[in-house]
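Q: Here's a chain of 124 amino acids. Please give me its 3D structure as tokens.
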Amino acid sequence: MERQSTSDRLILTALLRTMDLGIDARKALNDDQILEVSRFRMHLSDDLQTRVGRAEAKRLANAINEFHVRLARNKEQLEEIVILMAAGLLELPGLGPITSAQVLVSYSHYGRVRSEASFAALAE
């Protein structure tokens, strides 16, 4: 899924670099620019090529924004699960919801990790 968001961002950047739609895309697009593109409106005075370009740019920007919304929701759900399964794990320095979830998955069950060395071996 992340690859799709990356490719959408690259395609949108390429589109904005090849068509003059009012967005400076000489550098990587930032979130404000993507939001601006997602708010594009069609203009009756635009020629067909510009209308199609605007519509596609808007579609790509909306897909990127939707991906970020889904990603944020996923992170919230992971945090809820980690809190239910291992209260206090998120309070340890360096452990956010994603890393904590990976620790829980790697740990698997009581008895699998018998020492610090075997826990460290999971990182290999």
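Q: Can you summarize the key feature?
A: The chain has a mean pLDDT of 90.
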